[in-house]
Structures are given as structure tokens and as C-alpha cells.
Design a protein that fits this description.
Elements lengths: L1 H10 L19 H15 L10 H4 L2 H15 L1
Helix pairs in contact: 1-2
């Protein structure tokens, strides 16, 4: 999860991603941030995030996002 936190901190170093649970709903991550985040996640974790999974509940917290990455990784195995 540390890699994911590093990616998020590059986007918004002022945010406490370990406790924040409203990254999208609270307006911390804008649409451009999400596009950048998806690109970095796909590169770093060697996954492809399907369009159907690009929904706020998957991007509102680092835990939700990491769970999505793990789910996609398991499906790819």
C-alpha cells in the first residue's frame, strides 16, 4: 500500500490519505487527478482498471482503492 500512498502524495502532499475517506466526494481528487492516478496505478501495479470500476466509491479512500487494485490483480492471475 506504500506505493499507492506515494502516488497519492505526489498529487496532493497536503492530504492525509491514510485517514481521508472522501477523496472524490469531498473534492480532494478532481477528474484530472483521477486520470493521472489511474495512469500511475496501471504503470506501478501492472493492472488495467476497467471503466466500470472508475466510480467514486473505489476512489474515496486509499483502502478502497487498494482493495480495487488487489481485486483486479487477483482476477489477472
Amino acid at each position: 500500500m506504500e506505493k499507492l500512498l506515494d502516488i497519492l502524495r505526489e498529487l496532493h502532499p497536503e492530504t492525509d490519505f491514510e485517514t481521508e475517506t472522501r477523496l472524490v466526494d469531498g473534492g480532494i481528487l478532481a477528474s484530472f487527478d483521477i486520470v493521472m492516478l489511474i495512469t500511475r496505478i496501471e504503470e506501478e501495479f501492472d493492472v488495467v482498471i476497467p471503466a466500470k470500476d472508475i466510480v467514486p466509491e473505489h476512489f474515496n479512500s486509499v483502502k478502497a482503492l487498494y482493495a480495487l487494485i488487489e481485486k483486479i490483480s487477483e482476477q489477472d492471475d
